[in-house]
Design goal:
The complex is a heterodimer. Chain A is mostly beta strands. Helices cover about 15% and strands about 40% of the residues of chain A. Chain A has eleven helices and 65 strands. The longest helix of chain A has about 35 residues. Chain A starts with 12 loop residues before the first helix and ends in a 9-residue tail after the last helix. The N terminus and C terminus of chain A are likely disordered. By secondary structure, chain B is α+β, with helices and mostly antiparallel strands. Chain B is built from 13 helices and 15 strands. In chain B, the strands form three sheets. In chain B, strands 6, 7, 8, 9, 10, 11, 12 and 13 form an eight-stranded antiparallel sheet that branches. Chain B has a five-stranded mixed sheet with strand order 2-1-5-3-4. In chain B, a hairpin with a 2-residue loop joins strand 10 and strand 11. In chain B, helix 2 crosses helix 13. The longest helix of chain B is centred in the C-terminal third of the chain and has 21 residues. The N terminus and C terminus of chain B are likely disordered. Classes of the chains: A mainly beta, B alpha+beta. At the A-B interface, helix 6, helix 7, strand 48, strand 52 and strand 55 of A face strand 8, strand 9, strand 11, helix 7 and strand 12 of B. Strand 48 of chain A pairs antiparallel with strand 8 of chain B.
Chain lengths: ~1050, ~400
């Protein structure tokens, strides 16, 4: 009953040291586009860009590879960001009306973005309303010693920087109102401060714009108004012309006005010009306007919004105007903010903007303003991963140079791949060493595309985009008619950006990907049961695709598929660009989503599975080899298709939300319990709360039965050259695992290379294994005689990997959602196992076999089984002994999509989605770490003015915190807390997963004696525990009955 | 033979005289009182001396009160040996002809003398007024639940073991979140807990009577649930569902087992060093084929260790393409023939799943396979077994 597999061995210091050299958990970098950006800033001196998000994160970017991340303590939206130019300091304003000062700072190990100060604007005495002191705009002066703060109440306050000392110079509206002409006053207030702009020539003068339309030029020294501009239209934003002789205001009616500033006329009634670009019908407000002078003549006007309300009110637009040139950039998501990269040198006469940077809600768009036609510049970072929703991801480590170059070449011809030569934001230096090996991350998307990303370094670069939709007949024409704007159209829209959340046909969605990195063969499988085999080709081609249909139901009677139809393939030849070109299309019937796929390029075989069964296909001969139905006779849900499952999904979502809410509440309870004074109150409060919950959530306790629904779903497939029939002859095998804990093993008869065309592949059922606990099989892997995973196809024949040990007996590692088990081959006798769920109450979500290299010695490495559970923690086990090594908290357990999206690399890194648009990269290996290492040089007064060397450890946008080795035992700590309240607790040190493990475990040498010894250990542990619980079991006076 | 019978005095201390009757035949032999051996050895010996090696027997003896009591396990065998004064009178019946109504304490009041008792055995129809209630023998039962570890748990707690085995009956209970009040040095404190929320009528949990709604779940198979979420505890219970051990704090504390603290019971139950089953409840197989499948010449008594190792092996079923179904053997060498048998019937539902695969063996054939193994094993025992004096 109490099975403690692992006797506490004390701390074997030697093993502990080895483990420290092998394992370390770090969240290293975030790839992709920040979720829900809310603010943008740019420092022209340091050439750094900062983005703030709704979750309170600040991300700073410069030259590709230069990245900093900071996270506010409170999760509040960052509403404004401002650089103190050239100082490496950032001011942030949150929507809780607090100001924060951030510095790029140094530590011995490296630097980071850290918050140094925060400030809340105090309320004005006499005015109760808090909204009056709500900050609307900030203006840090270019001299960086003064910050002007405009408020909702119309006041302007001045703070000394960087100390945030409130200066006694505040300017209130009544002071302004005194000198405003009577006819303008008309009894109304001026409204909130909408804009503050520093005079480009005289730093002591600032332009203050009020919501009602009044703009004043205020002299800080003399504390008086130089000029009044009596605007009558509600003000949105202000911008100076470079000379300081005029400024531009934008308004809520969709127009903008140019005002001239002259010292002779203190009160200006009318602007020089007033334009409503998209009039005369009512337009939306121009939220922000920029006015940039150019050497060539006409100024460049850039503004967001201002679209005709009735016809284009729903568009997200930004207009660029220069002379007769007029472009309306049409984005697919909301414009958050924008800036231009231009000359800020005071000696120069013109702005001469070189680039426009637009932060949208879902992507970053950069426009080259120096090239005719204003083309876009692809960004080297902040890649919009989610341009179509990510449906799956696949990682390939150590990509051969040959394949890499061919993919890069194909990408260049597509225009996906860009050079960084004209990238305008290039502050800081990237010191990260060139990656030792090339890594590819493949993402499958809802629209049927597969995107190839360079995941070798800190910034995830797009390499190549593959579309699979062109081989099917779909309702939509894919000739991107959107790019061909007709000449007559007004406004002159130009579609910009790639974020496109609308999928033409959900059936196109990619479910599984498998790539052979040596042969350049790719298998992509999708939602409508389509399995596409693609060859990498450097030439374009116009060919027919071979289509095969495989009936996975075989001759099962009484099943009618109620889901979607299969995708009709195009009949004629299709033109394919260089890159991956489809060759064979296999369509599963019924066309349910493909749930597992694998490829063996050496044998020319693909295997794929759905919720109905699995198939084996010889893509060389274009002939099916095997189809096997895994459906249980009582399983009706499997035939429903995804549509009717939506209902239950909704229900389960609702349930899980309820659960999340609940766990939040209980989480809070536990924290509060630690303070003894409030305990009684707390208990009473909980009592009341408990009573309020009328129907508590309950869970049925019932063993899984054979006829549970969806038991036939094929969860994993694998090819291996191993011993299935007898212990002397090895050969090709194929393994399939299902949702109901069933494993099928087939012996394959694959003809030799020469005979491939004449002789067909044969598959013979070798073994069927029914796991007693019936939990879904998550992964199957064959281990060689030394306990190492078998190499990939071609690795041995091309001398890229050590040949597997075919002398010793092989074993198969079967990972189910509940336990790991190693079986000897060919007898399939159980050798070792670890029951994770029985011990920990968590279930296996993702597993991978990983090679961990030691930091201490390059030659030493161990293979480990890495497992991500439904609680979001990661366990590492030795193989084949399956002894727990380390455990780390990685993902919040509520983050279901994060857990579902996790992929591991072969060298101990991993990726998971922290938002629909961002991957968090983490590392389990102490040796293989990909993190930013960069330097930004700046002069900072009152501070060490040396250039700082910054290695940054960014934290995600509010989702987690970093973990050290010490924290990895937090579960144990939690148990200790509960010791105080439970008379039955067993001490934390006996936890079966205690990372305090064991003797040095040389893989593959587990003999029979070891096993026996191991069993003795169990007994001892059991007796120990029994003795202990006997002590604990004294009648306890501390329980109330 | 007669000699043995006549001179009891010299041998009373060391030997037990046995007079065994099967049909009309008698056999006499003696056993060493101090070393009686195990029941199955004794059973083999009886078959041997009566020369009926392949007949399934029901063994009964007349105790000091003249009651006819069964001998079918080590415990009642040892009891019979130790109480024999000095003659142990055995009555053997063919199992298929057995008359169970003869057993029991009532036989004392109905039939005062052993002779009358024998008469009942020989003429079962005599003196019968109404058809008696047929009660099956223990081997036709299997444990469904037990209270264990009474000696080491606080009296307020109860550790219940549910044996799911292969039967159709659902475990039949639900759990929920809740909070329980504890007394701590700081005063009353509410802590989150897991409770049984519902029992399914007719389910295993309900039928045992050992679990009730609102019982607080403290441990699952030795692992504390404190700090674990409802879903975690659900997963743990399901992962252990074939042999579930739940430690509960019963909502109703009036039915607790009251321990006699000075009886030295700790020593008695602790002698094995393992958990002691107290009050296991049994019920009959619900699968009709199951009785037939159990090797009929063995009267099985369940010991906790057996069930435990059964759990621990938890063999996965491996079906060879050649046609034989086999259990995945444990190369660590834990599996012995006797343990694998009780677990057999539970594979049956699975096997029925694949109607198309004719190559599959049924579990019954596996059963017979083990049966012959068992036969072999016994013959070995017989040879170097208990001392036989004829």
């Amino acid at each position: 009953m109490m099975k403690f597999r692992f006797r506490r061995q004390g701390n074997d210091p030697q093993r502990e040291k080895i483990k420290q050299d092998l394992f370390a958990f770090n969240k290293t970098v975030e790839h992709g586009f920040p979720n829900q950006p809310s603010a943008l800033a740019y420092d022209p001196k340091l050439q750094l860009m900062a983005i703030g998000t709704k979750s309170g994160a600040i991300k700073v970017y410069g030259f590709p590879g230069v990245e900093f991340t900071g996270l506010h303590k409170d999760t509040a939206t960052v509403t404004q960001l401002h650089f103190l130019h050239g100082q490496g300091r950032i001011l942030s304003l949150l929507d809780d009306n607090t100001l924060h000062l951030w510095e790029i700072g140094q530590r011995e190990t490296g630097s980071h973005l850290e918050e140094v100060r925060s400030f809340t604007i105090p309320g004005r005495s006499g005015i109760e309303s808090t909204s009056a002191t709500r900050v609307t705009v900030l203006l840090p002066k270019l001299s960086c010693d003064l910050l002007a703060v405009g408020t909702e109440g119309g006041g302007v306050h001045f703070l000394e920087l960087p100390s945030f000392t409130l200066l006694d110079k505040s300017l209130f509206q009544d002071e302004i109102m005194q000198s405003v002409p009577e006819e303008y006053k008309c009894g109304k207030s001026l409204g909130p401060v909408e804009s503050l702009q520093e005079h480009p020539q005289y730093p002591d003068k600032i332009l203050i714009g009020y919501s009602r339309g009044l703009v004043v030029l205020w002299d800080l020294q003399s504390r008086r108004v130089d000029n009044y501009f009596l605007g009558k239209q509600q003000l949105e934003s202000l911008v100076w012309e470079r000379s300081g002789n005029s400024f531009v205001s934008s308004h809520s009616d969709g127009g903008y006005m140019v005002w001239s500033v002259s010292s002779s006329t203190p009160c200006t009634h009318e602007p020089v010009t007033s334009t409503i670009t998209y009039g005369p019908f009512p337009c939306k407000a121009v939220n922000k306007i920029l006015w940039r002078t150019t050497e060539s003549g006409a100024p460049l006007v850039l503004f967001s919004g201002g679209m005709p309300r009735a016809s284009y009110g729903d568009r997200h637009c930004l207009t660029i105007l220069q002379d007769s040139q007029h472009v309306t950039l049409d984005f697919t998501s909301r414009v958050i903010d924008f800036f231009t990269v231009h000359c800020t040198d005071r000696d120069k006469d013109f702005d001469d903007p070189s680039a426009l940077v637009v932060l949208l809600e879902e992507e970053l768009v950069v426009i080259d303003l120096q090239t005719a036609g204003w083309p876009t510049i692809p960004a080297p970072y902040l890649a919009p991963l989610h341009s179509s929703a990510i449906t799956c991801s696949y990682h390939i480590s150590n990509v051969p140079t040959k394949l890499w170059e061919r993919v890069v070449c194909a990408g260049q011809q597509q225009g996906t791949l860009q050079t960084h030569t004209n990238w305008p934001i290039c502050g800081g230096k990237n010191f990260a060493p060139d990656p030792k090996q090339q890594e590819l991350l493949l993402t499958g998307h809802e629209d049927g595309t597969v995107r190839f990303w360079d995941a070798s370094g800190v910034s995830l670069r797009p390499l190549y985009k593959l579309s699979t939709s062109n081989i099917f007949q779909t309702d939509c024409d894919h000739n991107d008619s959107l790019n061909q704007a007709s000449e007559e159209e007004w406004p002159p829209f130009r579609k910009v950006g790639c974020f496109d959340p609308y999928s033409d046909d959900p059936r196109l969605g990619i479910q599984k990907i498998c790539l052979c990195k040596y042969s350049g063969k790719l298998v992509v499988a999708g939602t409508a049961g389509q399995v596409i085999v693609l060859y990498l080709s450097d030439e374009k081609s116009d060919h027919m695709i071979d289509v095969a249909t495989l009936d996975l139901l075989q001759d099962r009677e009484g099943f009618t598929w109620k889901g979607h139809d299969r995708l009709p393939p195009k009949s004629g030849p299709v033109l394919f660009a260089p890159g991956f070109q489809p060759v064979v299309l296999v369509q599963c019937m019924p066309p349910a989503a493909v749930t597992a796929v694998t490829l063996h390029a050496e044998w020319n075989l693909i295997a794929f599975g759905t919720s109905h069964g699995f198939g084996l296909f010889d893509y060389h001969r274009r002939s099916p080899v095997l189809a096997r139905c895994t459906l249980h006779p009582n399983d009706s849900l499997a035939m429903e298709g995804p549509l009717s499952r939506v209902k239950s999904l909704k229900k389960s979502l609702r349930q899980s939300f309820r659960r999340i809410r609940k766990s939040r509440v209980s989480g809070k309870k536990r924290v509060l319990v630690s303070s003894p004074s409030s305990k009684v109150q707390e208990a009473n409060a909980q009592l009341a709360e408990q009573d309020a919950e009328v129907t508590p959530v309950q869970r049925r306790i019932e063993p899984r039965s054979a006829d549970d629904s969806l038991s036939g779903v094929v969860r994993c497939l694998c090819f291996a050259d191993t011993f299935l029939r007898d212990g002397t002859h090895h050969g090709p095998t194929m393994w399939a695992g299902t949702n109901s804990g069933c494993v099928y093993a087939y012996a394959l008869d694959v003809p030799s290379q020469e005979k491939f065309s004449e002789q067909s592949v044969e598959a013979l059922l070798g073994k069927e294994i029914q796991l007693m606990h019936r939990a879904p099989v998550v992964s199957i892997a064959v281990l060689d005689g030394r306990g190492n995973p078998l190499p990939e196809p071609y690795e041995v024949s091309r001398d890229l990997a050590k040949a597997p040990d075919m002398q010793g007996s092989h074993s198969v590692l079967i990972a189910s959602e509940e336990q790991f088990k190693v079986f000897m081959l060919p007898k399939v006798s159980a050798k070792t196992k670890f029951k994770l769920t029985a011990h920990e109450g968590c279930r296996v979500r993702k597993v991978a076999l990983v090679n961990f290299c030691s930091v201490a010695s390059e030659d030493y490495s161990e293979n480990g089984l890495v497992c991500l559970t439904n609680l979001g923690d990661i366990h590492v086990f030795s193989i084949p002994a399956l002894r727990p090594q380390v455990r780390y908290d990685c993902i919040r357990k509520e983050d279901i999509s994060g857990i579902a999206s996790c992929v591991f690399t072969k060298t101990g890194q991993g990726f998971y989605l922290i938002s629909p648009s961002e991957y968090e990269r983490f590392s389990l290996s102490a040796r293989v770490i990909t993190e930013p290492l960069c330097q930004v040089e700046f002069d900072r007064p009152h501070d060490s003015s040396e250039p700082s060397f910054c290695a940054v450890s960014p934290q995600a946008n509010g989702t987690h915190k970093a973990q050290s080795m010490g924290e990895s035992r937090s579960a144990g700590d939690a148990e200790v807390v509960f010791d105080e309240v439970s008379p039955l607790s067993s001490p934390a040190l006996d936890s079966p997963n205690s990372s305090a493990d064991i003797t040095l475990d040389t893989t593959g040498e587990l003999t029979l004696e070891d096993v026996k010894d191991f069993l003795v250990t169990v007994d001892e542990a059991e007796n120990n525990l029994r003795n202990r619980s006997e002590e604990d079991g004294r009648p306890s006076g501390i329980l109330i009955n | 033979m007669n000699k043995n019978h006549r001179v009891p005095s010299s041998r009373t201390l060391s030997a037990v005289e046995v007079k065994s009757k099967f049909g009309a035949e008698f056999r006499r032999f003696s056993l060493d009182r101090s070393k009686p051996g195990r029941f199955d050895e004794f059973y083999g010996l009886l078959q041997h001396v009566h020369r009926i090696p392949n007949v399934d027997l029901l063994v009964g003896y007349a105790d000091v009160h003249g009651d006819l009591l069964p001998i079918n396990n080590d415990d009642n065998y040892h009891k019979a040996i130790s109480t024999a004064a000095p003659l142990l009178r055995l009555f053997l019946q063919r199992k298929e002809e057995a008359d169970y109504s003869a057993f029991g304490t009532d036989s004392l009041t109905r039939k005062k003398t052993p002779a009358a008792l024998a008469a009942v055995l020989l003429r079962p129809d005599a003196n019968r007024k109404k058809p008696p209630v047929i009660i099956s023998l223990p081997k036709d039962f299997r444990p469904v639940s037990s209270i264990i570890d009474v000696d080491i748990l606080p009296e307020t707690h109860r550790r219940v073991r549910l044996y799911k085995h292969g039967q159709e009956k659902p475990l039949g209970f639900y759990i929920r979140d809740g909070s329980s009040v504890r007394v701590t040095p700081q005063g009353l404190e509410k802590v989150p807990g897991i409770f049984i929320s519902r029992l399914v009528p007719g389910g295993l949990a309900e039928s045992t009577g050992l679990l009730a709604v609102n019982d607080e779940v403290l441990e699952v198979n030795g692992i504390e649930v404190a700090g674990k979420s409802l879903d975690q505890v659900t997963d743990m219970m399901i992962a252990n569902s074939h042999n579930l051990i739940i430690t509960v704090k019963p909502a109703n504390q009036r039915n607790n087992v009251v321990r006699n603290s000075n009886s030295g019971g700790g020593a008695a139950s602790g002698s094995s060093g393992r958990s002691s089953d107290s009050g296991a409840s049994y019920y009959s197989y619900s699968t009709p084929g199951a009785v037939a499948m159990t090797p009929s010449h063995i009267i099985q008594n369940f010991r906790p260790e057996e069930v435990e190792s059964d759990d621990d092996e938890e063999e996965d079923l491996v079906i060879e393409a050649g046609g034989d179904a086999q259990l995945a053997p444990l190369s660590a060498g834990g599996a012995t023939a006797s343990y694998s048998m009780p677990s057999l019937p539970r594979y049956e539902p699975h096997l029925n799943l694949r109607p198309s695969n004719g190559a599959m063996a049924t579990s019954a054939s596996v059963g017979s396979l083990s049966t012959s193994d068992r036969g072999l094993e016994r013959r070995n025992l017989e040879e170097d077994g208990t001392v036989i004096t004829l």
